[in-house]
Amino acid sequence: MDIKSLEADHMVPLYQQLYNTIREKIASGEYKPGDRIPSEAQLIEIYNISRVTVRSALNKLVEDNILVKRHGKGTFVSMPEYVESIGVGGSFTASWQQTDVVPGTKIISKLYVNANKKIANSLNVEEGSKIIHIRRLRLVNDLPAILEEDYFLPEYDFLLEMDLDNKSILEIIRNQTGLVAKEFNDIFEVKSATKEQAEFLEYKTGSPLLRVSQTIFTEKLNLLYYNEEYIRTDRYKYAIRSY
Q1: Residues 90-110 pLDDT 10s
Q2: 36, 62, 75, 189: which has the fewest C-beta neighbours closer than 10 Å?
Q3: From CA 5, how far away is CA 7, in angstroms rounded?
Q4: Whole-angstrom Cα distance, residue 31 to residue 23?
């Protein structure tokens, strides 16, 4: 059914007709994953339907994860969920090197901070000690998927001077120090997205995020660093291997 032939007197409500038509356009490939669909105003004007009808259909498509709204940018066809490759040594970047997925990393901030009690315990330093905090946004095909908070001891201050965008920190550490990550201790929790996290991840405040608290060690169990990842599981699946 072409969207232009929506029938007001049809047994199926107009919003459901529009919903079905957009789904058909996605299934046929007319709208591809990541494509921006026509705006509400365009749909209203082109197809002579009400704003209420358009919003009802689009809201249902968003609820069903067929479309995704990006604040200030429009409504897009949802990207497929991506599952992390197992056995890549904890590297987000390396996880996608053998796929057609385009990974990306945007550095939000990198600076010295005073360690709070939790971070101090994780790094085995005194509370209030100066440590390095790097905040990164992980992208999958240009869509934000993970907000990552990395914490390092002061001897890793070379990271503050380096370009870290779209780079593997594990690889940089290996090249600079010779230290290789061998063991990853993970704790998994579900947390509600804060307003700040939601803004970075283009998500709704209060929506569930998977938090992975991870401590990274060398083969000799020397601490490399500690991080916390806040993951949109509708876009990224964290994979682990059990033995």
Answers
A1: 555 555 444 456 788 999 999
A2: 189
A3: 6
A4: 9
Give the C-alpha separation, 64 to 51, whole Å.
20
Q: What DSSP designation does 87 have?
A: S
pLDDT digits (tens, 9 = 90+) for 212-229: 999 999 888 899 999 999
What type of residue sits at position 227?
N
Considering the domain 3-77, what is its CATH architecture?
Orthogonal Bundle (1.10)
| Span 183-217, pLDDT tens digits | 889 999 999 999 999 999 988 899 999 999 999 99
Task: Give the mean pLDDT of the chain.
Answer: 86
Q: Are strands 130-140 and 74-77 parallel, antiparallel or unpaired?
A: unpaired
CATH number of 82-237: 3.40.1410.10
Coil, helix or strand for 53?
A: helix
102-118 burial by CB neighbour count: b if 16+ within 10 A, else e?
Answer: ebbbeeeebeeeebeee
Q: Which two tokens stand for residue 184?
A: 């990853």
Residue 194, both tokens: 């804060």
